[in-house]
Amino acid sequence: MNIGNLYFSFTNPSLFMLLTLSLVLLLVHFVTKNGGGNPVPNAWQSLVEFIHDFVSNPVNEQIGGLSGNVKQKFFPRISVTFTFSLFRNMI
Known about the structure:
It is built from three helices and two strands, in the order ββααα. It has helices at residues 12-32, 43-62, 68-90, and strands at residues 2-3, 6-7. The longest helix has 23 residues, at 68-90.
């Protein structure tokens, strides 16, 4: 696809990245369906909590000597990277 002097192509990695993004968004939809604030978590909420704990423990061990603010600063980046890689490898 040519736009001006630029050439854009849709390759297999682009397809798999879109599939991964759709899987992550589908997971978010199932977790937040009906408000997502039920006192008893459903299976999707339990899955997301398991992923959060699985990533949180190594982050706390590796960045253990630093203050809580630093951990909170890096945790979202590490969590998103891990979750995206997990779903990317599951495809």
